Amino acid sequence: HMDETSRLVNDLLASAGTEAELLAALQREESQLRDVNPENAAYYLDFLKKLKEAKGDEPLTFAEIQQAIRDANAQAAHDREVNALTAELNEAIAGGDVEAMLRLLQDPRLRLQEVRPENALIYQVLLAQVQDAKGTDLLRDELQAVINNANEYSDQTQALVEGLEKINTAIEGDDSQALQEALQTEAVGLRSCIDECAEAYHERLKEAQAEKAAEGDPSGWTQESTLQGHNYYHNRKTGAKQWEKPEDFTGKSADLTRQEIQKILTRVTGDYNRQKLLEANEHVIIHLQARWRGILLRREHNQRMQYLREQKPHVVKIQAHLKRQQQRKRYLERIGFLKANEDAVVKMQAYARGWKARKIMNIRKQFFNDHVAAVVKLQSHVRRWLAMRDYRKLIQAKKPPVNTLRKFLHLLEHSDQDFHEEMEVQRLKAKVVTDIRTNKELEEDLNVMDIKIGLLVKNRLTLDDVVSQSRKLKRRGAALSSSSSQQGGHGLKSLSKENRARLEAYQQLFYLLQTNPTYLARLIFEMPQTKTTKFMENVILTIFNFASNQREEFLLMKLFETALNFEMKLKVDKLVDVITGNPTVVKMVVHFNRGARGQ
């Protein structure tokens, strides 16, 4: 049974078993383990784990398990006892019972270190502060930390008091250097203490000590306030030091406190620094003398002013003439400056007006953005009203307008005749574009023919050249007519793979040039002014198919818009440039509307 119990316990520890599983294994009737307390299950598990970790891979024996149970029971009993003492100690701290608190702090069962009976009162104060801040009972580690802090605090206070006693003893003597060394003690922490004022410190501190000794307390107790606001009492005569207030303390000690000494040091050092400042700033005294001379001069000036007041009418007339001359000079200089910078002034005014207009527009735009829901609703109502009005015209009028019919054309029935008519319109549009291109080429050839006939008349060209040009013109006309009649003879199927890829690349190129007008807009201004009309006729109108349908007409208008914006940025610096300049895009638009559309 012992081996079985050892095996079960070792298996539970190896498989990280729970407290309940370990307790069940220990309480088995066959385990033969003694003193197993269910309340100490957590202690059993902790002690056995530590023992197993110490032994490594070796299993625990029955005797080791029994000893671990006894040790765990002893530790649990000790912890419960410590918890009870800690709870009692927290009640004493909360109740302000210093004697009970000190007795519990010194209890060896709590194992608290460095508990000093002379610091009982400061222990009570600091422990109560920590307890109030935490809101719950303090644990043993927290109690030890507060005790350590209180001891350190008490040591610092005692060092401060010893330094003050040393200073008061040195004040009573005649050695200023010894007093200076005492004042510079680090534990006292006095400021504004310099060696140059050692004798002055001694003299003033001795006077202050004599004034306090006249009405001092014979008991010799002195109260010193620490930086944390606690009171500490010491007696230089007897050497006693304590936190508790003595019964015979009257508050009238002959010794100087740290605050009184610091006040005297600050005043003496300030007087010394002020004297040195006056000596180092001799020019300030000179300045004061200059001020006095200024007073005398102002007195003379006031007398002069009195004379001028008596002659005020004449003075005013002279000043008026001088001011007029000065103002006229400044005015003429300003007018000359503005005339010399007329362009900059006009530009600044234009910027100012533009900024004002943009501000009004932005305010209006912001108003619409803030009320976009209302604007959309109004627009929808207006569109609805217009649609209802056109619909009523369509169903009520005998001869509705063409615009109304166009809007509701998609609602009407389509027939085969409508489809054939639409196809015929598209065919006629394509034929018109082809005829336009043919006419353009024939016009160019005709112009060449006219030039050659003129040269023939002037005997600068032979008759054979004219005849060959005429034959060439006839052949081109015949070829164009035959190509238009035989348009269906060749198609995409007759193209090779290489030519088809080239055709697709050209299609993508023309699509990009149509949909992104930036390229052609920049190209227009890279060409000479004399070739823009030729470029318009040969390239742009050809790419946009002479605006034969709505899509191509829209894309051509977008090109004109982009080019016009680019020209405004490139050429227009002043508003007058729009009138006096030579706008390229405007000429192209006029040429397109007059020539390309046959107007």
Q: Count of helical segments?
A: 23
The unreliable regions are 484-490
- Share in β-strands: under 5%
Quote the distance from N terminus to C terminus: 122 Å
Query: Which strand order do you get reading across the main beta sheet?
Result: 1-2-3
Approximate helicity band: over 70%
Order of helices and strands: HHHHHHHHHEEEHHHHHHHHHHHHHH
| Structural shape | flat
Q: Give the beta-strand count.
A: 3
On the 0 to 100 scale, the average pLDDT is 78
> Major β-sheet, in short?
3 strands, antiparallel
How would you briefly describe this protein structure?
The protein is mainly α and 599 residues long. The protein has helices at 2-14, 19-26, 41-55, 62-95, 98-105, 120-134, 140-172, 176-183, 198-214, 258-280, 282-310, 312-340, 342-370, 372-396, 402-407, 416-457, 463-485, 497-515, 518-526, 532-543, 550-571, 577-580, 584-596; strands spanning 221-225, 231-235, 241-242.
